[in-house]
Amino acid sequence: MNATLTADIARFRRTNPQIFTRPLHERLRTWGLWLAFLAILAFGLWWIDASPMRIVNGLNKLGLLVTLMIPPWPGDGLWDYTYAMFETLAMAFLGTLIAFVVALPLGFLGAKNIAPNWLFHFGLRRFFDAFRGIDGLVWALIFVSAVGLGPFAGVLAIAVGDVMVFGKLFAEAIENVDNKPVDGVRASGGDNIHVVRLGVFPQVFPVMMSHVLYFFESNVRSATILGIVGAGGIGLQLSDRIRINNWQEAAFIILMILVTVAIIDAISRRIRARLI
């Protein structure tokens, strides 16, 4: 049977060579794209001075740092690290919650089927795009300068950074709702508020909550980075330990962050699975 199948495949290849043999111009174009990609990659590595010797030296120093981190040890700062970890979680939670509350009406206003005015819709979407282009770390630096050091600056940075992303995601979810429940509410005599509350919101709420939970996971990691620039939390503790070369305590803080993020990820994944 295998011999018969092999013979049939060989016969098919002979009778349909165009399937297995690409035209010459397509092969040249593919090779040209690969060569261009490799040339750009080589130029980029040369531009940043990524020499093999530099990489080897960096790996040697990295191995030394890993050796200094073993064993991870909290020293006398276990309570301080635990408090800072809870502070980071609070920053991520409050920032995400504020972003959700502010973005909820913006999402409805940015949806074509809710606000059909083309000019208003276009302007609001471009407003979302403009602010989404600013990274959360930049917002943290701005708010640290504006309101001072501490977790309040981190909460504001997370909230402002996420509002525009939530607004765009919520608007897209609202635009893709099933129109049958909407038509049913209108046929029952409902006004626009009833349509939104009974026909649209029940459909998009699980999707919205899935986005919020996912961003909360991401914001826990982001809050760590924001702490390094002065926004408080566990990131500030980590930055201080690295600055004074206390690598054992730095390793302990990194393990705390990894365990916390893993726990939040597992809980959030189960909640999202139930919602959708």
Detailed description of the structure:
It is a single chain. The protein has 276 residues and is mainly α. It has 2 domains: 54 residues, no CATH class; 197 residues, Orthogonal Bundle (MetI-like fold), CATH 1.10.3720. Helices cover 84% and strands 0% of the residues. It contains 12 helices and no strands. Helix 8 packs antiparallel against helix 10. GO terms for molecular function: ABC-type phosphonate transporter activity.
What would the keywords be for this entry?
2 domains; 276 residues; single chain; MetI-like fold; extended; mainly alpha; 12 helices
Overall helicity = over 70%
What would CATH call the architecture of the largest domain?
Orthogonal Bundle
Domain count: 2
Major pleated sheet: none
Query: Roughly how many Å apart are the termini?
Result: 47 Å
Question: What's the overall average pLDDT, rounded?
Answer: 82
